[in-house]
Structure formats: C-alpha cells, structure tokens
Amino acid sequence: MRTDEDTLSATKAAVLRFDKEVIERGNDAAFHELMAPGFVNRTARPGAPAGSEGMLHTNKLANCVAPPATPPAKHLANANS
C-alpha cells in the first residue's frame, strides 16, 4: 500500500522532472510522458486551448519571450517541504 510519504515523493519527482526536462530543456517527449491524457488547464487564457497542447504551446511561447533566468528545479530541489 502506498503511503502519503510515497505519494509526496513521487509527486516531487514528477514536478522536478517536468521543470528540468520540459521548462528548462523544452523536451516535448517528456511533456507528453508526464501529462495526463485528459489534462485540463483551468487557468488557460481566454481563447487558448485548455488541453495539454495549449499548455505546451504556452510554455514554448513563454520560454521564447523570457527564458528562465534561474531554473525552477533548483528551487524545488532545495525546498524543505
């Protein structure tokens, strides 16, 4: 049986992988591996696709306009919670 600690560890690992591979490196294959098939982005801007492809497009656009100055994965790796 999976414990809350196991779930927390798995979630942190997925977030770190997403930040490093998708946000920092722009790895589309990792994006598709990590996203749930029925993902819905409830904070998508009006008119933007609310599925995973819309999120991928938004991430690519954001990285073109303002690439991450400090990779987010470094912050998460040092988090105490």
What does this structure look like?
This protein is mainly α and 81 residues long. The two termini are 23 Å apart. The radius of gyration is 14 Å and the shape is globular. It contains four helices and no strands. The mean pLDDT is 81. The relative contact order is 0.15.
Question: Could you list some keywords that capture this structure?
Answer:
81 residues, mainly alpha, Nuclear Transport Factor 2, Chain: A, 4 helices, 59% helix
Topology overview:
Elements: H1 4-24, H2 28-34, H3 52-65, H4 72-77
Oligomer: single chain
C-alpha Rg, in Å?
14 Å
**C-alpha end-to-end distance:** 23 Å
Low-confidence stretches: none
Q: Which structural class do you get from the secondary structure elements?
A: mainly alpha
Quantity of strands, as a count: 0
- Average pLDDT works out at 81
CATH first level: which class? Alpha Beta
Overall structural domain count: 1
The DSSP helix count reads 4
For the largest beta-sheet, the strand count, sense and barrel status come to: none
What's the SSE pattern? HHHH
Q: Fraction of residues in helices?
A: 55-70%
> What proportion of the residues form beta strands (DSSP E)?
under 5%
What is the CATH topology classification name? Nuclear Transport Factor 2, Chain: A
Shape designation: globular
Q: Which CATH architecture?
A: Roll
